[in-house]
Amino acid sequence: MADVSEPLVFELRDDSIIPDNGHICQLDNGTLFYSSQSELCVLWNGQKFTANLDKECPGTGKVIVIGIGAIENAVYFAEHRGRKIHKAVFECPRILITVVRDLLERELVHGNATCSRAHGDKYVAYRMDQDPGKHGIAYDGDGNAIGVAGDHIFLEGMDQSEQHWLWDSAKNTYIVNNFCDTVGYRTLVYARRRSPFIYVTNGQYLAVICNGKQYPMAYSGISEIHSIIGVHNGRISVVANMYGRMGIWTARLKNLEQTQTPTDKILDALHDFKLELKQLLKENTEAVERGSSDICSYLGGFDDQLVKISQEMEKIRLQRDTAMESLDD
Predict the structure, then answer these.
(1) What are the residues whose beta carbons fall under 8 Å from the beta carbon of 137, sequence distance 6 or more?
(2) What sign for the dihedral angle of Cα 189, 194, 195, 196?
(3) Residue 96: CB atoms within 10 Å
(4) 240-260 pLDDT, tens per residue?
(5) Could you name the domain of life of the organism this protein comes from (predicted)?
(6) Which of 61, 147, 260, 305 has CB 3.0 to 4.6 Å from 189, enough for a Cys bridge?
(7) Distance CA 269, CA 30 (A)
(8) Of residues 298 and 45, which shows the higher confidence score?
(9) What's the pTM value of the predicted model, to 2 decimals?
(10) Do 240 and 296 fall into the same domain?
(11) Are 175 and 143 in contact (CB under 8 A)?
(12) CA dist 233 to 31, 69, 83, 255, 279, Å?
């Protein structure tokens, strides 16, 4: 069951990085990726890192990115001319891009890192990180696949005469009536593998699906949702419009995914520590030239990270010991 009794209150986070004809994704660890023309960019720790896709994806001429979307802690996208699927991860200070596979003959690329292909008299949809020969959800080819979450598939519907904007047409198959254009640059469906919640929007309305049941979510602060960016540390982020002001807006999910689990916190802390360590190694030469005091200040920051990780691990140990004592009683 999903508790949606309290409306979401969206607040503006940033209105300076909305790319023209691009797309913004948030990884499970909170890192922001966005594409803009032939660039793939990362915003991390107040800094911007950029990869030139024309250079990173050689041999295809001008790169045309399609179907981009986030899956766990990586971004997947297809390159239209080269007919290849790519994976991008952020290893500070570099954005590492690798080829996952070639697109299959007559394979279709949809938004949100989703692909499909014909299979008999039906279509099969799957995520870009999945093997199309082993995975996929079958559906009738009556709609554009806009997302695959677990064993659920979401299709775009354009029948605006329907009273409901979101409904299940078959087992694990949902239709989302979309009232806006440019679906290819939007994420209408968002889910994390470690969460039971699937967030869905059609631009005007927002809902969460949990265990096959739909729960409408009331919200304020924005007038139209363009795309769901992600959920991290108990907050949902969207690209939204408020009376002509487009930006990244966030809202606290008060009764949904309110806090990270201890494991999530440790994984995030380790990830941040890894990125900062790589950044330190990159800047090591400059730091030496500036003097040993700068190096000490860098290392001091890492000491703080290690203390936080140790504290979280101690909390987990205490919770485990308490649980064991209750079982003994």
Answers:
(1) 124, 125, 126, 148, 151, 152, 153, 172, 173
(2) positive
(3) 12
(4) 988 878 889 999 998 776 544
(5) Eukaryota
(6) 147
(7) 11
(8) 45
(9) 0.76
(10) no
(11) yes
(12) 12, 20, 36, 13, 24
Domain that holds residue 299: 262-328
| 103 falls within a domain | yes
* Residue (of 315, 297, 318) closest to 307 by Cα position: 315
Joined tokens for residue 270: 């380790």
Q: pLDDT of 25-68, one tens digit each?
A: 999 989 999 887 788 999 888 889 999 998 888 666 678 888 99
Integer Cα distance of 24 and 187 in angstroms = 9
Residue with tokens 């001008």: 62
Give yes or no: residues 153 and 292 share one domain: no
93 upstream amide cis, omega within 30 of 0: yes
Question: If residue 97 lies in a helix (H) or strand (E), which one and from where to where?
Answer: strand 94-102
Assigned token pair, 110: 């949809």
